[in-house]
Amino acid sequence: MSENVLMSPEEDPGPAPLRRPTLSQVAEASGVSLKTASRVLAGEPHVRAQTRQRVVLQAQRLGYQRNSAASLLAAGRSVDHLGVITGDLTNPFYAGLTQGVEDGLREHGLHVSVASSAESPDSEWTLARGLASQRCLAVIVVSAMEDHSRYVQLQQGGTPVVFVDRRARGLEADSVILDNVTGGRAAARHLLDHGHRRIAYVGDYDWLPTQRDRVIGFGEAMEAHGVTDWRDLVRSGAHDTPGARAITAELLSLEDPPTALVAGNNLSALGVSLELAAHAASRPTPALIGFDDVDWAGLVGLTVIAHDPVEMGRHAARLAVKRLTDRESPAETIVLPVTLIARGSGERPPSSRPQREESP
Amino acid sequence: MSENVLMSPEEDPGPAPLRRPTLSQVAEASGVSLKTASRVLAGEPHVRAQTRQRVVLQAQRLGYQRNSAASLLAAGRSVDHLGVITGDLTNPFYAGLTQGVEDGLREHGLHVSVASSAESPDSEWTLARGLASQRCLAVIVVSAMEDHSRYVQLQQGGTPVVFVDRRARGLEADSVILDNVTGGRAAARHLLDHGHRRIAYVGDYDWLPTQRDRVIGFGEAMEAHGVTDWRDLVRSGAHDTPGARAITAELLSLEDPPTALVAGNNLSALGVSLELAAHAASRPTPALIGFDDVDWAGLVGLTVIAHDPVEMGRHAARLAVKRLTDRESPAETIVLPVTLIARGSGERPPSSRPQREESP
DNA sequence: GTGAAAGCGCTAACAA
DNA sequence: TTGTTAGCGCTTTCAC
C-alpha cells in the first residue's frame, strides 16, 4: 500500500524519508509547547494572539498538515465515512442515489466518500477493498459484478456492505432494489393496451439483474397478451446513449419494425429518443416508454416507468446505519415501487403519424 | 463534538459507556494475541484457518468494527480525503464537477468526501469546518457565500481551500471558474446577429458571481449593438426549473415580449423550455440559448453556451493537490473557456413561427 | 504460525 | 494563558 501522498515520481525522496512535519516540530519551531500548537491549529481559544500568530507562521513555513487519523484517535472519535461506489456520477441516476445516501447519513453525523467503478468489476473490487481496509465504516455499492461472494471478505473484516439497485447474489447482505419485474410488465402492458403488438425492448447490459428482471416482466406481459415472439425484438447492451441510438436504428430498419419501444434506462431513453427524432420525418413515430424519470421527460412528453433514486439512496443509508450496530439480524432486501407516468410518448397508437408534419 | 455513532436517542447509554469493542477484546475473547486478531481482521495471510475462524466468529459476536483512525495512524498513513461541497448532487452540473474531482484525485490515491450545502451559507460553513476539523486534507467548494474571508480560518488550520465555479472573494485562495463574461457576451451576440433586439435574460440568484458576470457580458454585447434598454428584460432568482418557468411566463406576457431568451443555467434552461413549449401553440416561439450543455440539448435542438463541468472538477483537484505540498506560492485562478454550440433554438429569427402548426 | 513490545501524532485531563 | 503526562487502538518490527 502506497503512502498516499505526493512525491512527484521523478523527484527522488532523498536521504530524509521526507515525513510530513508533525505538530511537535511546529511547536518546537515556534518555541511553544505541543499543546499550545495543538490549540492554535485546532482553532481552540485561550491562546494569546501573538502566540497564535507565531505558531500559524511556523506551520505555514513548514507546510504543516494535521494528521487527521491521529487527531481522531486521540479525540476518541472514529472515522465517520461510508463509502459509496457507483458507476459514475455523470449518470443522474447514480448522482441521485449518492445524494440520497448523503441525506440519509447526515442525521447520524456520518459522511459519504464517493468512488466510481465505471462499471468495471475489477475497479469496483479495488475500490471496495480500499474503502473498507480503513477509512470507511460500511460500503454501499451499485455492483458491476454478477456474483458477490468475494464481498464476504469485507463483511468478515467488520465492514458491512449494502447493495443498491442490484441485489446481493451469492452473499447474505442487505439490498435495496427496484421492483423491476413489475416495471417491465407495466411498460409492456401499457403499450399492449394501446394496441401495440410489435414492441421492442432496448435494454442495458445482459448481465445486469435490473435488465434481466425488466425483461422478465416485459415478457410475462407479452405472453399474457398472446404475443409469443416478443424475444425477437429484445436487444441488450445499450448502457449509454450512443449504444441505444445504434440499436434503435437497427430496430427501425427491420422489415417489420416495432411500433413501440421500451428503453431500459435513463441514458438509453435519450438515445432512443434521439434516433426516433431523426427518423420522425420519414415514418410514423413509434411509441416509447423509458425507465427512470429523467428531467427532460416533461419537455418532450416522454412516458416513463418512474422511481426515486434519491429515496433509494436514503433507504440504503438507513440499512447501512442499522447494520453498523446490529450485525446479527438477517439480511434485509427492500424493494421499491415503480410508477408509470403517462406523458404522451407511450400513448401513441400503432398507426401514429410523425410529430412534425413534414412527410409528403 | 458528538461521538459520531449511533445510540438511538431513546436508548439510555447505561452504566457502561458502551465503547465499541476493540481489537484486544476480540483477541481476548478468541484466546489469541492482539497481533493475530489484527492479522485476521486486516485480511493478512499466515493465520491458520481454524484460528482465523475463531477470531472472525468472536468479532461478529462482539460486533467489532475496526477503528480506522487508529489503523491509519499506526500504519503511518494519513486520512486521504478531500472534501467537496456543492449545492446538491441532483444538479448534473454539481455531479459532473464532483466526478471530475474524483477523476483528478484518483491518480494521487486520494478520495473525495461529498457534502451538500443546498446553497445555504450556514450549512456550507458548518460542513466546511466539519470537513476541515479532521477528516479532510483540503476542501473544494462551490460556495454560496458572497464573501469568503471566514475561510481564512481553515487555511490557518492547515486546510487548503479551492473555490470552484465561484471565485474566492475576500480571501487569497485558488479558484477555478468559467469565462462567464465571455459566455454572456457570446449568447447576446449570437442572438443579436440573428436579428434579435428584445432579448431577455432569465438569470440565477442575483448574488451569484457567475450570474453577475454573465449579465455583464450580456450587457456589453447589447450596448455594443446599440441596445440600451436591455436591463428591462433581465430577470434573476431562477435557480431551479419552476422558478425559471414562472419568470418566463411573466416575460412572455409582457406587452412587448422578448423575441429571444437566454437561460442562465442548466435547470433554468429546462424551465424556460417547458414554458416556451406550453406557449408554442399560441404564438411564435422565441429563440433560446441556454448555459451548460445539458444532456437533452441535442434532443430538442437547444443552442447552448457549453463548458465541461468534469474538466472543471479535474482542474480543482489539481490545484488542491498542488496546494497540499506547496503552501507558499500565490493563489491561482484558472478561467475555463466556454463555447457556443448552435443547435437550432438560438438561430430562430425574431419572426419565427411556432414549431407545431396548431395555431388557428 | 504466533506473540511481545514499541510507538504512530495527536488531544484530554490536569497542573502550573 | 500555557505546559505536562497519559494514553487513544492499532500496526509494525522482531522474536519465538
Describe the structure.
Two copies of one chain form a homodimer. Chain A is α/β, with parallel strands linked by helices. Among the domains of chain A are: 21-63, lambda repressor-like DNA-binding domains (434 Repressor (Amino-terminal Domain)), CATH 1.10.260; 180-307 and 341-352, Response regulator (Rossmann fold, 3-Layer(aba) Sandwich), CATH 3.40.50. Chain A is built from 13 helices and twelve strands. In chain A, α5 links the parallel β1 and β2 (111-116). Chain A starts with 22 loop residues before the first helix and ends in a 19-residue tail after the last strand. At the A-B interface, α3, α4, α5, β2 and α11 of A face α3, α4, α5, β2 and α11 of B. β2 of chain A pairs antiparallel with β2 (111-116) of chain B, so a sheet runs across the interface. The first copy, chain A, binds a DNA duplex (16 and 16 nucleotides) through residues 22-24, 32-36, 38-39, 42, 46-48, 51, 66-76.
Rough outline of chain A: elongated
CATH class of the domain at 180-307 and 341-352 in chain A: Alpha Beta
Q: What value does the Rg of chain A take, in angstroms?
A: 27 Å
Largest interface: A-B, 82 and 82 residues
Could you name the CATH homologous superfamily of the domain at 180-307 and 341-352 in chain A?
Response regulator
The helicity of chain A comes to 40-55%
Query: Which series of helices and strands of chain A comes N to C?
Result: HHHHEHEHEHEEHEHEHEHEHEHEE
Query: Could you say what the CATH architecture of the domain at 180-307 and 341-352 in chain A is?
Result: 3-Layer(aba) Sandwich
- For this structure, the CATH topology of the domain at 180-307 and 341-352 in chain A is Rossmann fold
